[in-house]
């Protein structure tokens, strides 16, 4: 049973970098079994896929966020991290890390498409 846990600041100043880490237990992020993803849900809106990370370190980002996003792994800690530069209040959301099997070149946006989810963490971008 894979478990995921998000961690990071709950409050970010505008123009600063939003950084969240997902700690994975019950499986290795380099095993190749799962695609590792970040998803967010702004208040009153639907889930928005942010990006995918493969066991090899390859990444795929939502085109609308691509210029500000990076996702990378720390294999020694079995973690992967999201960094979103130049944060604005529109980045305020509940952020989730998740894992799924399937095609890497797909940005999944439905809960049912993922095998495992973290509990989510609220991030507010405000001064």
Structure, explained:
The structure is a single chain. 0% of the residues lie in helices and 46% in strands. The chain is mainly β and 127 residues long. Strand 5 and strand 6 form a beta hairpin. The radius of gyration is 13 Å and the shape is globular. The mean pLDDT is 96.
Key words describing this protein structure:
mainly beta; seven-stranded mixed sheet; 127 residues
Short recap of the structure:
This protein is mainly beta and 127 residues long.
SSE inventory with pairings:
Elements: E1 3-7, E2 11-12, E3 18-25, E4 35-41, E5 48-53, E6 59-61, E7 69-74, E8 79-84, E9 93-100, E10 116-117, E11 121-125
Parallel strand pairs: 2-11
Antiparallel strand pairs: 1-3, 3-8, 4-5, 4-9, 5-6, 7-8, 9-10, 9-11
Number of DSSP strands?
11
User: Uncertain regions: pLDDT < 50 for 5+ in a row?
Assistant: none
- Envelope shape: globular
The helix content, as a percent range, equals under 10%
């Amino acid at each position: 049973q894979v478990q995921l846990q998000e961690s990071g600041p709950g409050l970010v100043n505008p123009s600063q970098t939003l950084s969240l880490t997902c700690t994975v237990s019950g499986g290795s992020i380099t095993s190749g079994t799962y695609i590792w993803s970040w998803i967010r849900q702004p208040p009153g809106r639907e889930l928005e896929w942010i990006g995918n990370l493969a066991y090899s370190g390859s990444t795929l980002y939502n085109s609308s966020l691509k210029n500000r996003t990076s996702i990378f792994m720390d294999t020694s800690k079995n973690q992967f991290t999201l960094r979103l530069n130049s944060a604005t209040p529109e980045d305020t959301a509940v952020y989730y890390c998740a894992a799924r099997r399937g095609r890497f070149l797909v940005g999944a946006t439905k809960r049912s498409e993922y095998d495992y989810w973290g509990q989510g963490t609220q991030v507010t971008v405000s001064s």
